[in-house]
Amino acid sequence: MQIPAYSFLLLSGGIFTxxxxxxxxxxxxxxxxxCIELMLNAVNLAFAAISRYLNSLDGVVFAFLVITVAAxxxxxxxxxxxxxxxxxxxxxxxxxxxxxx
Amino acid sequence: MNWYTLSPNVPWLTxxxxxxLAGALMIALVPAVARRTVKQLGILTSVATxxxxxxxxxxxxxxxxxxRFQFEEIRQWIPGVGISYHLGIDGVSLFLLGLxxxxxxxxxxxxxxxxxxxxxxxLLLLVLEAATAGVLLALDxxxxxxxxxxxxxxxxxxxxxWGEGQRVYAAFKFLIYTVVxxxxxxxxxxxxxxxxxxxxxxxxxDWVTLVQHPASGTAHLLGLSLSVQQLLFxxxxxxxxxxxPLFPLHTWLPPAYVSAxxxxxxxxAGLVPKLGAYGFIRFNLxxxxxxxxxxxxxxALLATIGILYGAxxxxxxxxxxxxxxxxSMSHLGFIGLGIFTGNLLGIEGALVQMVNHxxxxxxxxLIVAMxxxxxxxxxxxxxxxxxxxxxxxxxxxLLVSLAALGLPGLNGFVGEFLxxxxxxxxxxxxxxxxxxxxxxxxxxxxxxxxxxxxxxxxEPAGFGELRRSDVGALAPLLAxxxxxxxxxxxxxxxxxxxxxxxxxxxx
Amino acid sequence: MSTLAPLVLLTPxxxxxxxxxxxxxxxxxxxxxxxxxxxxLSLVFALAILVQVIGGEHMDQTYFTWWSSGLFxxxxxxxxxxxxxxxxxxxxVVGFLIHVYSIGYMAADRGISRFFAYMxxxxxxxxxxxxxxxxxxxxxxxxxxxxxxxxxxGFWYDRPAAVLAARKAFVMNVIGDVGMVFAAxxxxxxxxxxxxxxxxxxxxxxxxxxxxxxxICLLLLxxxxxxxAQLPLHTWLPDAMEGPxxxxxxxxxxxxxTAGVYLVARMHLLYDWAPQAATVVAVIGGxxxxxxxxxxxxxxxxxxxxxxxxxxxxxxxxxxxxIGAYAAGMFHFMTHAFFKALLFMAAGNVVHAFHDDQxxxxxxxxxxxxPVTFWTFLIGTLSISGFPLLAxxxxxxxxxxxxxxxxxxxxxxGLAALLTAGLTAFYMFRLFIIAFGWxxxxxxxxxxxxxxxxxxxxxxxxxxxxxLGGYFPVANFLEPVFGHAVDIGTGAFIALALLTLVAAGxxxxxxxxxxxRRPELAVAWRARxxxxxxxxxxxxxxxxxxxxxxxxxxxxxxRFLNNVFEPRVIDGTVNGVADFFLLESRExxxxxxxxxxxxxxxxxxxxxxxxxxxxxxxxxxxxxxG
Lengths: 101, 507, 626
Description:
The complex is a heterotrimer of chains A (101), B (507) and C (626).
Chain A: H1 5-25, H2 29-54, H3 58-86
Chain B: H1 12-29, H2 35-59, E1 70-78, E2 83-89, H3 91-110, H4 118-137, H5 141-162, H6 167-200, H7 207-211, H8 226-243, H9 253-259, H10 262-270, H11 272-287, H12 289-315, H13 320-341, H14 344-375, H15 391-404, H16 411-426, H17 428-453, H18 468-486, H19 490-500, H20 503-506
Helix pairs in contact in B: 1-2, 1-4, 2-3, 2-4, 3-4, 3-10, 3-14, 3-19, 4-5, 5-6, 6-8, 6-9, 8-11, 8-12, 9-13, 10-14, 11-12, 11-13, 11-14, 12-13, 12-17, 13-14, 13-16, 13-17, 14-15, 14-16, 14-18, 14-19, 15-17, 16-17, 16-18
Chain C: H1 4-22, H2 28-54, E1 59-69, E2 72-80, H3 82-105, H4 112-131, H5 135-153, H6 160-191, H7 196-202, H8 211-227, H9 236-239, H10 245-254, H11 259-266, H12 268-273, H13 275-296, H14 302-322, H15 326-353, H16 366-369, H17 371-385, H18 391-404, H19 409-436, H20 453-468, H21 474-482, H22 490-517, H23 519-537, H24 542-588, H25 596-618
Antiparallel strand pairs in C: 1-2
Helix pairs in contact in C: 1-2, 1-4, 2-3, 2-4, 3-4, 3-10, 3-15, 3-20, 4-5, 5-6, 5-10, 6-8, 8-11, 8-13, 10-15, 11-14, 11-15, 13-14, 13-19, 14-15, 14-18, 14-19, 15-17, 15-18, 15-20, 15-21, 17-19, 17-20, 18-19, 18-22, 19-22, 22-23
């Protein structure tokens, strides 16, 4: 049975929206990170689906690229969070505005 | 004619780029506390690069004109948009490449290993060497642009982090100025490629293709209306004029030179401005011969104003570093004037003067640094009578000063003579003005030399003679001053064919 | 000959290198003898060249290429003909004697090896100047002698006056160098060659008396005038007397300052082709001769009097070469080298005897103390004043004769030269009477000491030259270069010779009357002449004029550019642009709160906006574009 492509896109859009909303309303950096992952994976899903739909490998290649970037981003991000935590800062993104200078 | 033939199977020019980078990589692997090892690695790398470049200069075949390059390498890079890794060398870039290797060797040799964060310093210096060499070798417009911008990064940090005085301000000002020029150039590069695409249906950034229509053998950009050519010309010119710098785009220069640490200054003042001049010859005169011809009087005028302006500014400086900075600007005016004469002798004079300027300015800044290290100041008003007790120092400083003021028989004269001869043929009044610049040069250079080394000494002792290593650092520069001054015939033998084939001469 | 000529050049260079590189390790006397010996060796080679040139040989030999590109093909070639042979002989003979003299004169000086290094370098550059066979190397030698002149004027670099004088000399000489270089440009662009042989053979392609050839000759003249201290670029020469006395003798009397005369003589084919420029040369020469002689009458520094005398005598030579009497000019160059070098070296002995006091009013009664110096100085004075049958009589006479037999402005210059002959006798005997003391029959109360033989023997040899140099057949020797001189007939010859004799006699008589017999007359005349005398004593205020018109405005402009123009106008514009963006950015950066989530909202909004815009333009939204 063929699942139509638009249902994947709908699912992808839904997950992305969830991620975006989470990103905006949550204050804990770890949760924010998870939301970012959610958004990225939503995009991956769309890539994979359309790739299948178009019978082309380009989308899958992009999905791999996104996965790699996401992994790298998490590594850097977690490292920063740990550093901030060690510095004894509050784990609230609204309070972290050192870059404002 | 050439002395020997280098194997065509070896990517010689890539090696020139790779060697400094490999040295930088090795330095990165050495612990930062091993300062001596870092320094030895740095010197070893620069010596190896210099030897390689000398081998290339020796194997360079004379008399190959017709816009052809030697030691050419082409690899596909981004074939979809016609960008390739294309390196090559001709008479215009040959001796500048040699100057590049020589000055970087000097810079690594004179760096004090006790400099804070010495390892990073050396690393950046070697990366900078690869970038500047790339600027000289790249024959693809995008590749050139990449090297051009890559040069900025190490320079910015070298000045901003290791400089003195208002170093951050100076580095920032330099960066902003240059980036403005670079963007103008990038737009022009894209426009050139787009126009070429529209005309031939082939998208390419390759200099050799762009300059010479593959089918008819004529420069197809000539088909453009003059005003479009002029616009593109100005796009390129802005980047190069800022880098040189041409009057009135020079105000980044004095703070940057004053702030830069001396090893950086050797390449920053001795080499980087010439890359601007090189860009003028390689791109402006080659890609837009008609625009170059029509705009030449204007640019030659700017260059001449620069000669006189720099000379007058040098007259009123008391800080020796600033004085040399403006003297450098005045000399660069000569190079600019030579380029925009648009005739064989003027351009050849500009080419030889580029090498001379690097040699002379590097030596002058080295000497200023030696004075400062000994006396703790470089204010001319506080220096007097240093020659008492330091005869060798006085003699070498005198020799460098004489080369700087263009004494016939030393190297500065060769370039100035040819440039003014070319200028006399093209724009006689500007040649006369340049002659006044020569007279002013004698004035401010002697004021600098006599003001610091002659007269009654302020206090009898405390100013030490040159050390062996100081003399060693100056020796290659002094040798070049005499050799180029007495017997420069090797120079035109190598560059004449290339210059003769420049589109601005053959239009 | 093609090996001899480089040898003449290279021996002084070798002497220079030895003294420059190893001078401080050598014993003081060795330094001196290396210096003098290298010139002596050069003299031997020069004599060998002389033998060959007398045998009728010429040489134009290329040794290596200097620059070759397109039409511009400049070799390093040496050009030997009677003219350059005469020059190298005078340079090496007088140079050798002065070097020997310097061994004694500079014996006590700390920097003796430096001194001889500079002197040898000078002789090398001077020989290069006269032997060079093209304009590039002529300019190299030309600037090289200027450099050595600079180095030697400022030899005592801890004296501020010497340092200033050296810089002044150098900068004024660079003005001349630039003129020469421009002349070379015009020559190359019109004739496409720069070597003398080709230039001389092609000069007739230019229209005679046309603009081009006149411009060439006038530009060359700029160089000649600066180097030879002729009006209006003369002010450096009197100041140059700050250097050691042997330097004044060699560079600022015998050789370098006469390079301008050599240049015009070397380029005589060009000047023959440009009569207007030649007239300018003659006028500059005549006017300078008179002008410098008047100043010479008022100076009290013994070396400055001699410096103005040098300017005046070179004025004679310029007059000669300007009216086409090239052989006469070169003849006077040779005799002048003898007697002026003699006068300077003798003056050096006197100055040493008076412990470096150069004011002639403090001197006197030198016959007993310094007999050799006294008598040789007298011979020099007589020779320069044109005493019959001494060298100066023949050479100066020939110039005045040639000028007076011309017409027009040249004739007027001849009259000026005749007047100058009288003034020369006057100021030289004024100097002699005041400095050496007319009262030579009385005893000398002071204990003055004659210089050692090493300083007197060269002077005696030069005195022989100053006495007998007039009998050298210079005109015949130079005939292959300049052609045969015009003969004016015996009657006119004797009449003109008598005329110059009368002029010199009047000058001598006046000097004798005013300074030996009736000193009170000098005071009275000084008072009567009032402002004119003040004007002359201040050298016509030309130094002050240059200071007001060139030097001070130059520095004012430099200060204006540095203090006002650069920071306010140029950098002001740049910083103004920067300030604008800074001001704008100050407002825009309020939206950068530093909060991650606010950035996130902006990003999301931006993304939605962009997607919406694309969708709208592509027509996927319910409301359509356009």
